Amino acid sequence: MKSTMERAETRTAPEPKSNRGPLVVIAVFGALFLVGCWAAWFFTIDDAFITFRYSANMADGHGPVWNVGEDPIEGFTNFLWMLWHVPFALAGLPLETVAKVTSVVLGAGILVILVRAGHRAGGVLGALVAAGALVLFVPTYFHVTAGLETIAFAAVVLRAAIVGVDLVQGRAVRDWEPPLLLLLAGMIRPEGVLATLPGFLVWCWLRRRHGRTWALVAAVVVVGGGYFAWRWTYFGHLFPNTFYVKFGNLDAGSVWLETTVLLFLPLLVLTASLLIRKESRGEGLVLCSVVLLTGMTYAVSGPTMDYLYRFAFHAFPVLCLGAALATARLGHRVIAALAGIVTVGWVAVAGVTSVELPVAANYGPDLQRAHVAIGKGLAAARVPEAARSLAVSDAGAIPYYSGWKAIDYIGLNDEAIAQGARPADVVKAARPTVIVVTAQGPRATPGVVYGMSVPEVAKDYELVADIQMREGYFQEIFVLPEYAAQVKDAVTTSVDEAQRRNDPGRYEDTIDRWLDRLRAQLPGG
């Protein structure tokens, strides 16, 4: 005979969830994810080639340096991502492809994690909300294929958030995981320490009576402190060089914050709603803390190159998880379903209507026929090794493919400019063979670009080429007279070939151009 209490427990115990639901969700959304990656595969952001240049130089035995033979400068903020590509550079594999494949695998991992966590909390509806927001947000695919560390960082932050939620819900976690995630996140991006701190602190508190906990904390301090001390002594500065260029732009940070809040408003509201009920307050505190600490850095720095909400994406999967957990707590199934539909629909519409989407959708071919072609042309130019130097603002594909010594006059990869030197003074002192200037039209040389006076630095140079990337975006090539003919011939040959292969004659930033390109890739297209 069962007691009254035993019978009550039997009646109220939750039914075990079937594994069929999450498998179907993974299969359907996984197929959509792969289609999305295919549609954005051509997209690689110019900044990715900055990291690849450091990786290639390290693979060649020079260490992580911008210019071989010069003092090291930390012009990247993704050390572990840079390090990941070194063995592939040694093997001679194309780093652009390595980065894309890595991010596809990690992106698929994020999808699986969200489906499992969403299903565990709210059944099939929870899985649909968590994974649907990710998969139906079109910018996701451009972050997968961009070549940067965005997806890797988001994956680590998401996993750290889930570990924190598991801890406050009383689930078992592997003791080595919270400290490892803290180290990984901090070495992928400096702000990763903040992003993964909530789960780490929860773990420290709940495991405070275990000696192994403090041994692992000590290991984190030793390894993390050793890494920080090495990079400080190697590069000579407390923070990456990009920090000194970007940090402190509160006006831009305010705009970023307003844009991000509007973009993810339903996700933010649902995640914050976890704080209302006592039974969900612990997981709500963890998730809200992760989102707040992740975004705090960008809100006070006004991040540049924030294409398609790149920096907001770092916490996006965490918000997808929070929305799934919150819908599971709404109680009434119809209300939960409506909340999920509104949330996923909001995010999907916000992504597909982004004003930046047409530019990103055509950016890959545009970069190939301009920056990549210029870099390859410079590499082929008959210019002596000692004279292979250039100054450039778009300091990614052009320096990477050319292999030339490069002055980044924005300052991301130039210590003097980052510390306040006039770009014109730095460029004039170096007197590079080539100066590349971004203009809005042919023969429309700007007076000042990124703080550099173009007439001042290029007065003794010859303009040998105006290369169109897209509507309203040209690269002007200025060359010292003694090398003008060689550079012009090589760059023109390279660019002409690239223009023929990449959307010839089309320079408009439209979704139609993107769709036409995709249709041409289909069988019979």
Task: Tell me what the structure shows.
This protein has 525 residues and is of the alpha/beta class. The protein folds into two domains: 18-354, no CATH class; 359-513, no CATH class. 63% of the residues lie in helices and 6% in strands. The protein has 26 helices and seven strands. The chain has helices at residues 4-12, 20-39, 48-59, 79-84, 86-90, 95-135, 139-145, 150-168, 177-188, 192-195, 197-206, 211-235, 241-246, 250-263, 265-273, 278-299, 310-313, 316-328, 333-352, 357-380, 397-402, 415-418, 423-430, 454-457, 484-501, 511-521; strands spanning 389-392, 405-408, 434-439, 448-449, 452-453, 462-470, 473-479. Strands 2-1-3-7-6 form a five-stranded mixed sheet, sandwiched between helices. It has a two-stranded antiparallel sheet with strand order 4-5. Strand 1, helix 21 (397-402) and strand 2 (405-408) form a beta-alpha-beta unit. The longest helix has 41 residues, at 95-135.
Question: Which SSEs are present, and which pair or pack?
Answer:
Blueprint: H1 4-12, H2 20-39, H3 48-59, H4 79-84, H5 86-90, H6 95-135, H7 139-145, H8 150-168, H9 177-188, H10 192-195, H11 197-206, H12 211-235, H13 241-246, H14 250-263, H15 265-273, H16 278-299, H17 310-313, H18 316-328, H19 333-352, H20 357-380, E1 389-392, H21 397-402, E2 405-408, H22 415-418, H23 423-430, E3 434-439, E4 448-449, E5 452-453, H24 454-457, E6 462-470, E7 473-479, H25 484-501, H26 511-521
Parallel strand pairs: 1-2, 1-3
Antiparallel strand pairs: 3-7, 4-5, 6-7
Helix pairs in contact: 2-6, 2-7, 6-7, 6-8, 6-18, 6-19, 8-9, 8-11, 8-16, 8-18, 9-11, 9-12, 11-16, 15-18, 16-18, 18-19, 20-25
